[in-house]
Write a structure and sequence with these properties.
32% helix; 5-stranded parallel sheet; binds coenzyme A; Rossmann fold; binds adenosine monophosphate; 24% strand; 7-stranded mixed sheet
């Protein structure tokens, strides 16, 4: 089939408001928009101004009313615990109505923030939808973050309540969440009034009288009293959720998602981008703590009446590298969305794809990859093994859905390895030089998008319009700066190669090296430090910290290195995967004192580099090389 992409993209370009007004017809509104786009509202305008709606209604109630009551909405599949449970749309609605009533009983209402610190269990999705139902704003915190990160998010969001589980389960260890939550609340200045704890059998959380409430007991009480939360009408422009993501400092950015534009954009993507029809099974093997989990485990598949899989496991080791194929064949998954790192892990364990042959994958149509650049090696391996289109697509927490992709539903465009293909309707893509001029095709520059961003993208940062403007909108007047660098080819295919800031991508997880430096620098024996992302075969990048110790520290430097590693794990969390700390004599700098992180990264990755003209003392690069060689990092 010839792709309709160009026709559809041009129809958006010629009439953006008409395009999104048409897409908005797929959503049930309490009140339609007064203006499809209001350029005068908010930081750069608001979509669907004046409209009223409820996201949970669109995800659940309307499907139950329209004949999907008995269709599976959510399949919880947990190879790590050996549990599985399917929720039909009617059952999921019942759970959400009940939990919504529990939250209301605890005083949570429209506009209140609720932190969800949850492992990959169905209750995470239930809690998200319950918040959406009652007009509360959820903020999910990934389970791999430490107490300190949780505290920062409680403070910034001023969360009225926290919902958690007694534990998450990682291979070989049970991660008890409750002590982390208790510590976070102790650290935070803002104290949530109530915590709801879902007790799992692998660990029992101890409860604080008066503040903590048992999920099961509360739900039972609500049921006994016949309490069910109704949908609370919100403005389309009201926040649905806040998702904190790494910024360039230790203070994460609270990315806001609104209700109306989010529904319209996500609904549009399921058919047009992912090529998935209502009733089919879609699987995003991510975590609800990340944006992919928000958009494609919970909201998009439910908005369109699909069945979504919520998978608690790893691509390898739970129990083996065949688990993805087992889930696909067992649940009839038509499209899988995951990070390239998961495929690198599978390829390492099962290079010949022998485990794939154990399963009937005839239902499976497309593999989507995102979260980091899909390296051509991994992509080719996946194509050869699975014999389906493998689609790389590029997006960010801020956008909530793909900026560039190969729209399967509109007809696949030729795949070019290394490129996430072309701009989706709603996004204009330009590659700019430092002065904001477009560079010629094929030349690298900063990727920016003319404002306004499309529906579904963040309207602002939580209670911080100024930081939103400063971080994204001031570098290039009238544009959103993606902080990704890359180039565009003659066919308009974009190549996203690197970040222009200090963000690194570790196993598809977005992390700030600046945030890690803040933690490392706080060690009393560290005079100064630099954390950089270095290439890693499995995780794409991993952080490496270089430490200059204070004069007079006469301990074995390896002791300080070990302490720093422990500190990052304690302060940021295991997800930082910070396992390399190297004591060095000096850091290479420019004459104006800027640390030459880019050059250090080239040395660690074994790449050619030009001696920076402004370097203060070139001999330091030799010292860095020696340390890296001694540790087997550079050859
Ligand atoms: N709760 C607590 N700890 C967690 C956690 C969670 N939810 N998720 C990860 N961690 C821990 C891990 O146990 C690990 O701890 P360790 O240092 O004690 O081993 C650490 O954080 C780093 O985790 P990760 O980077 O995920 O590495 P891994 O070795 O456990 O697994 C992969 C490697 C490739 C299998 C895994 O990263 C993966 O599946 N990635 C897919 C990424 C993804 O879905 N990204 C979302 C965008 S689509
Ligand atoms: P996150 O906000 O966690 O989704 O991370 C967003 C960042 O991940 C982007 O700014 C990119 O740097 C990177 N990224 C995500 N998807 C891709 C992709 N398909 N290709 C290249 N980089 C990607």
């Amino acid at each position: 089939m010839a792709s309709r992409y160009h026709e559809v993209y041009n129809s958006w370009k010629n009439d953006p408001e008409g395009f999104w007004a048409e897409a908005a017809k797929a959503i049930d509104w309490v009140k339609p928009a007064d203006k499809i786009f209001d350029p005068d509202a908010g930081v750069y305008g608001h979509w669907f101004a004046g409209a009223e709606c409820n996201t949970c209604y669109n995800c659940l109630d309307r499907h139950v009313e329209d004949g999907r009551a008995d269709q599976a909405a959510l399949i919880y599949d947990s190879p790590i615990t050996g549990n599985k449970k399917t929720y039909t749309y009617a059952e999921l609605l019942d759970e959400v109505q009940t939990f919504g009533a529990v939250l209301q009983d605890l005083g949570v209402g429209k506009g209140d923030r609720v932190i969800l610190y949850m492992p990959m269990i169905a209750q995470a999705a239930i809690a998200m939808l319950a918040c959406a139902r009652i007009g509360a704003i959820h903020s999910v915190v990934f389970g791999g973050f430490a107490a300190n990160e949780l505290a920062t998010r409680i403070d910034d969001s001023e969360a009225k309540a926290v919902v958690t589980a007694s534990c998450g389960i990682e291979p070989g260890r049970v991660v008890e969440y409750k002590p982390l939550l208790d510590e976070a609340i102790e650290l935070s200045n803002y104290k949530p009034a109530a915590c709801v704890v879902y007790q799992r059998e692998q660990a029992k959380a101890s409860m604080i009288e008066g503040r903590d409430h048992d999920w099961a007991a509360c739900a039972e009480a609500a049921r006994a009293a016949g309490k069910q939360a109704d949908c609370v009408t919100v403005a389309a422009t009201d926040p649905l959720y806040i998702l904190y993501t790494s910024g360039t400092t230790g203070q994460p950015k609270g990315v806001v998602r609104d209700n109306g534009g989010h529904m319209v954009a996500l609904h549009w993507t399921m058919k047009n981008l992912y090529g998935v029809d209502p009733g089919e099974v879609f699987w995003a093997a991510s975590d609800v703590g990340w944006v992919v989990g928000h958009s494609y485990i919970v909201y998009a598949p439910l908005l369109t009446g699909n069945t979504s899989i919520l998978f608690e496991g790893k691509p390898v080791g739970t129990p083996d590298a065949g688990v993805f194929w087992r889930v696909i064949s067992e649940h009839n998954v038509v499209a899988l969305f995951t990070a390239p790192t998961a495929f690198r892990a599978i390829k390492k364990e099962d290079p010949n794809g022998d485990l794939i042959r154990n399963y009937d994958l005839s239902c499976f149509r497309t593999l989507f990859l995102a979260g980091e650049r899909a390296d051509p090696d991994t992509l080719e391996w996946a194509e050869a093994q699975l014999k389906v289109p493998v689609i790389d697509h590029w997006w960010q927490t801020e956008t909530g859905w793909a900026i560039a992709a190969n729209p399967v539903g509109l007809g696949v465009l030729p795949v070019k390895h290394g490129s996430p293909t072309v701009a989706m309707p709603g996004y204009g893509l330009e590659v700019l030089d430092e002065s904001g001029k477009e560079v010629p095709r094929g030349e690298t520059g900063s990727i920016a998008m003319p404002l306004p961003l499309p529906p579904g993208c963040f309207p602002t940062l939580w209670q911080n319009d100024e930081r939103c403007r400063e971080s994204y909108l001031t570098e290039y007047e009238g544009y959103y700066n993606t902080a990704d660098a890359g180039f565009m080819d003659e066919d308009g295919y974009i190549y996203v190669m690197a970040r222009t800031d200090d963000i690194i991508n570790v196993a598809g997880h977005r992390l700030s090296t600046g945030g890690m430096e803040e933690v490392v620098a706080a060690h009393p024996d560290v005079a100064e430090c630099a954390v950089i992302g270095i290439a890693d075969k499995l995780k794409g990048q991993i952080p490496a910290g270089f430490l200059v110790l204070n004069a007079g520290v006469n301990r074995d430097p390896s002791e300080v290195e070990g302490e720093v590693i422990k500190l990052v794990r304690e302060k940021i969390g295991p997800v930082a995967a910070f396992k390399i700390a190297l004591a060095v004599q000096r850091l290479p700098k420019t004459r104006s004192g800027k640390i030459l992180r880019g050059t250090m990264r080239c040395i660690a990755d074994g790449q050619e580099y030009k001696m920076p003209a402004t370097i203060d003392d070139p001999a330091i690069l030799g010292e860095i090389t020696d340390v890296l060689k001694q540790r087997g990092i550079a050859s």
